[in-house]
Structure formats: C-alpha cells, structure tokens
Specification:
5-stranded parallel beta sheet, 21 helices, 17% strand
C-alpha cells in the first residue's frame, strides 16, 4: 500500500503528516462520500434546459348556465418519468388531453418535457369537464419549456380543443365563457376561430380567434396579429304568414291577444283544423328580442350547440316531440345542460298533441311557468337556467279526435274521455290564460273565402299594444302571471263587479282571476284604451280553459 498523502489544513498551508499507524494493525484507506449541501426550505431546483420552473395559465370552466375562472398551476416535479400529473378534479376529457397535447407537440416538432410535470386546476373542489382545457394546458407546458415568455400569459385566458395536427376545434358555451371572462377582469381571450364571432358579442373583451396552435404561438410571440372576429349575426327570419290560415276568426283573435300580452294559449279541436298552423305563426307576430334577452338566449343555445352558435335575436320556437324525456324538456344530464323550456327563453314552447305527453312532464312545467327559470339540482351540482317562455298547447278534444265535430261522430266512451282529459291536471290548465276551440273550416272558407290578415298587419297592432302598455297600462316586460296588487287599478267599478260575479259563478282561483284581468287589460291595450271595460272581461272569460274543457 502506498504512502498516505499529506493532509492540508485550510487554515494552515503547511502540510501535516497523518498520525503514525501501528505496524501490526492493517491500514484501511477511508472511503469518502460526496457531501451535498441540503437545499434551503422553499427553494426549488431549476433546470435551465427545461426553462422556467412554474407558471400559471387562466382558463374557464362551464358550471351549468354559468362559468367559473380556473387557474392552471404547472411546475416540474422530481424524477425522469416524463409524466403529466393532473390534480384538481380533472374529468375524463381533461385527462385525455395529455395525449392529445403530446401528439400535437410532436407534430410541430416542439419540445416535450423531459421530467414529470404537475398541473393543478384550481379551485380544486370544482369538477373540470369539457374539451376547452387543451389549449391552456399546452400553453403552460410550452411556457415551462421556455418556448413562451411567461409575461404574455397575464390578463389573458385560453380556451380550445387541440387536434393531433394542431388545429383548434370549437368548444361549447363560448359566449358564456366570454361573458364570465369579461366579468372576471380578463382583458384578452384566445379561442378557436369558429367561436370568435359569438365571443365578439361581449363588449370590452379583446378576442383573439386562431385556427391552429402555431398561429396561437405566433400571436403570443408578436410575429402575427389575430384578426378581430366579426360579431355573429342572426339568420334572416323566415316567419310563416298568418294569411295562410283559412277562417278561424276566434283562434286568430286569441293568437293576437296571446302575442300582445305574452299569454299562454291552448288550442283545442279535431285533427286537421289548423291548430299547428296557428301555433307556428305566433313567433311571426312577436317583436324582436331586446339586447339582454338576445345575449341570454344565444348563451343558452351555445351551451348545447357543441360549437359555433348563431345569434338568437328573434323569439325562438321550440316544438319537442311527446316522447321527449324529462331531462331534455327541463334540463339536466352530465354535464348539466338546459332543456327545451330554457331553449325557448324569450319565445314560444309548443307542445303538439299535448295530451300525449306524460303527466309528469306536463306538471314539471308548472314551476318554470311561475318562476320563469329552472333550478336543476344533482348530487353536488346545481344550476339555474332562465326559462321565460310562452306555452302553446294543441290537443284533440277526445282520444278519437272527433268530439263535437259537425259531421263525424265521436266513438269514445265516457271512461275513455275521462281518462284522456285527466292527463292534464287542473293546476296546469289554470296556467293557460287563453283557451280556444278550433273547429273544422267550412267549405265556403276553403273555397272562395277571403284571405285573412297577414302577419305583418297583426304584428303592427301587437307592437302598438305593447308600446301602449309600456307607457303606463302595464310594463311589457312584466310577466302576465306576476303577483301585482295593482292589477285592478285600470278596471272600472262595473268591471270589478263583473269580476266578482265571475269568480263566484265559475269558482275561479286567485291566480285565475288575476290572469283573467291581465287578459282583459291586454284586450283594452289592443284598442288603445286605458280603462278595462266589462266587455273586455267578458271576452277574456270566454277564453278560459275551464269552460272549454267542461
């Protein structure tokens, strides 16, 4: 064994000899391990090859009819597993985004993290669902790798689904997400080009609509500029003309009253008498939606469209089939989406062959008709959707359809008729302001009859009546079933006496009496009269559902 080298003391440059070993004892050379100074607590390692250690990216997550800002926090973790670990209740579609992002980065030749990355989605107690987390997660990974400067992520939100070739696919609910982003103080939002027009409807928000990941990187690097998208426009409305309906003077009158006062309407008559034709022409009598209702209606349709959505500035007309499920009619599912009652917000919900709907479906409409909104509650999740619509129902008077027909006899037994009419509960019928019989048109009305008024002429009277009510008789935005204690203010003494007699004779409920007065006030507004006269109340009483069904 060779001699032991001298040991140099840092304090004394003179070499010192090691202590002398006893010749009889074996001399073992000590094995020294490299001593690593422990990292101070709170200090993180930095790998310059991987760029910055941590970054934060802002995005948004749909939660029913609303959206919640989500902050994605990313940083490297120990080990060389090259995994992307997602925390914060990331759903299945969000977890699958890891593979889509890797394929997209490989397509462009962009660097992929060589160490494990932890991505935390905050708030952690909100389940993250949807396909819009691909783009923000990719931006965070590229920021960790040093491809993107961290400063460009500030005051900017990212939404979008990535294809394997780098294309950005549209997401659902873009207008809802943009509205929430603007309310949360976000100045800019980057999303797929197909969603740009609807996001551009939000004032004060700089929308960057891009088609590919490479285009998004160029915009962030300043080498390209995203063209501001043009706000989406509504398609040209194609309303059916009321002049196509032959005869049916009473039904046409009821349709005009319903349009002027936003009243619920029930059409009752044999098959083929024009009930569906009348209902389909109601939207053509209604004025265009105001700005607030337009945004609400467009946002609701955006939640179910799954992509780009057209502007909804005309009253929508929804006509679900009688086999519709409760979730599709009221709303729900996973994720929670609005139903037909919300998609008809600001417009008309038409139930053709109304008696064929399940009674549980019809009774589920009672709460939205009163509150003008829908509250959907699921395990751990709740959502509220606006649902201010006019309900129009059409049904036959009996199972065979020919009860009261002038030329064909009814073949239904009393038991069959009673079972058929019991499908509509009394509380639901009480919510119909107007009910009218639609008899078969006569031969003279079919051949040689004068065509009825066009929708344009009736729409002008409806607009004038609404303007007259907004001027003092009744606010046009006030629902017809609102509990307004001043509902009798415009009734004369004779009208009040007539109302008292009607309530006694027909056993009207308080709600039915209020709706009766509301219809009478609409009739007076159509004649541009501030006072409700007894004959206005008589005409409104003739359209009550109780007298028709009896």
């Amino acid at each position: 064994m060779g001699a032991t080298p001298p040991v140099t003391d840092p304090a004394n440059p003179t070499p010192t000899q090691p202590p002398t070993q006893t010749p009889t004892e074996p001399v073992t050379e000590p094995v020294t391990e490299p001593v690593t100074e422990p990292e101070p607590e709170g200090k993180r390692r930095t790998d310059k090859a991987d760029g910055e250690v941590g970054c934060r990216v802002t995005t948004l997550c749909l939660d029913g009819a609303a959206a919640v800002p989500v902050e994605i926090e990313l940083h490297f973790t120990g080990g060389l597993m090259q995994r992307i670990v997602l925390t914060g209740l990331a759903g299945g579609s969000v977890r699958e985004s890891r593979d889509r992002i890797r394929g997209c980065l490989d397509h462009y030749g962009l660097p992929v993290p060589r160490r494990s990355v932890l991505a935390n989605f905050a708030p952690a107690d909100l389940r993250k669902e949807g396909n819009g987390f691909d783009l923000p997660l990719a931006m965070g990974l590229l920021t960790l790798m040093g491809v993107i400067e961290p400063g460009v992520l500030k005051a900017r939100a990212f939404i979008g689904e990535l294809a394997l070739d780098g294309r950005l696919r549209p997401v659902r609910g873009a207008l809802v997400l943009a509205l929430q982003a603007a309310g949360a103080g976000v100045k800019r939002i980057m999303l797929p080009r197909e969603n740009g027009p609807e996001a551009a409807l939000v004032a004060g928000l700089d929308v960057e609509a891009v088609s590919t990941l490479q285009e998004a990187l160029d915009v962030l690097a300043g080498t390209a500029r995203a063209q501001p998208p043009t706000p989406t426009t509504a398609p040209t409305p194609r309303h059916l003309d009321l002049a196509d309906v032959c005869g049916q003077a009473s039904a046409r009158r009821a349709l005009e009253i319903a349009a002027a006062g936003r009243h619920n309407l029930l059409l009752l008559g044999p098959p083929g008498t024009g009930k569906t034709m009348l209902a389909q022409r109601l939207p053509g009598l209604l004025p265009a939606l105001d700005e607030q209702t337009t945004l609400q209606a467009t946002a609701l349709h955006s939640l179910v469209s799954g992509g780009a959505t057209e502007l909804v500035d005309q009253p929508p007309f929804r006509s679900p089939h009688h086999t519709v499920s409760r979730v599709a009619l009221i709303g729900g599912g996973r994720p929670i989406v609005p139903g037909e009652v919300s998609l008809s917000h600001g417009g008309v919900l038409f139930l053709d062959e109304m008696a064929e709907f399940g009674r549980h479906l019809l009774d589920a409409l009672r709460q939205p008709l009163e509150d003008h909104c829908v509250h959907v509650a699921r395990v751990g999740r709740t959502a509220t959707f606006p649902a201010d619509f006019q309900l129009v129902g059409a049904m036959n008077p009996c199972p065979c359809g020919y009860r009261g027909h002038p030329a064909r006899g009814c073949t239904c037994t009393p038991v069959m008729l009673d079972r058929y009419l019991r499908r509509l509960s009394g509380p639901l019928l009480d919510r119909f302001d107007l009910s009218v019989e639609v008899p078969p048109p006569t031969t003279s009305e079919w051949f040689g009859g004068q065509p009825g008024e066009s929708s344009e002429a009736v729409r002008a009277r409806v607009a004038a009546a609404r303007e007259f009510m907004a001027g003092g008789l009744r606010d046009a935005d006030e629902p017809s079933d609102s509990n307004n204690s001043s509902s009798l203010d415009h009734c004369t003494a004779a009208t009040r006496a007539r109302l008292e007699t009607a309530m006694s004779c027909y056993a009207l409920s308080g709600r039915a009496a209020h709706r009766l007065v509301s219809v009478a006030r609409t009739i007076a507004a159509l004649d541009r009269r501030p006072e409700v006269l007894p004959h206005d109340l008589d005409e409104a009483l003739s359209f009550r559902a109780g007298s028709i069904m009896s």
